[in-house]
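Please check this:
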Amino acid sequence: MSNHWQHNGVASVMFSMVFGGCCSNVWLYENLLLMNPRIGSALTFSQMAFITLQSFPAFLARSKDSFIPRLKPRQVPLLTWATQVIVFSSGSLLNNWAYSFNVPLGVMMVFRSAGLPVSMIFGYFFMNRRYTFRQIFSVILVSAGVTMATTSNKKSVQTPTDIQQYSLGITMLVLSLLCTAFLGMLQERTYKRYGPCWKEGVFYTHLLSLPVFLFLAQDVKQGLSSLSRNNETSPTIAWLILAGNLVTQLICVSGVNRLTSSMSSVSTNVVLTTRKAVSLCFSVWWFGNGWNAQFALGAVMVFMGSLLYSGVRFFGKAEKGKAE
């Protein structure tokens, strides 16, 4: 009984971090993009640096032979983390750049929801997974629901003035989507082989991503300086929004990594897709974009699909071992 309550407590904390941290992070992220559509590189760098500095002390160990502290022994080889860093930093940058290429936030969320079928395809071809009809149907239902809900947003139906820029932005989102799915597969394999070392994963993937921004120094400088000369709000409010985004990003990343270390990539994507639907509902309510029948139907489809998949995953004894 105590193990049952302990498991429920851990799950509650994990889901609170994902839904609370990530939903708040997306709202603050949207505010930053509205202030400056080209803040992507600066925002990604700030998130990487903040999470690295916050987690750095936990990985320091005092040495008997020297006064200079050293990094604790790793549970996972550095090359494994370096491989994930290339995928992780590429996906993050591409996703944050897309908004400055005339891609509306609604379209960005449609592409993010497509991570479900991509993860399932990756699992089928690269991890020898087989999925039941109910699992496939639930993933299609979730993806279709998020697509319906997102395209009902007025922001997503604006006609781009520059077709070439828009096409480049869509290409960035496609590559970011593939990076996200591939990263989920790499993380799942790492945690299965070395155990649920998600804290180490958060630290090293963010630490090793920082050198990438040496090549983006001017873009980062432009993004950060724009906060001090913003016309939409005062510099103090702009910097506070960035600070809030960094804190909620830490909570979100920690929750997602905990989730990834204890669930398969497809199951993780189902939870994250549901979270995106909640973010979209909050965004529509907060920014006054209105509520319509298509949006409501899409939201219902997302929640029904998530519940359907969860039922198969946790309660379907006959399907246990067939798929994840």
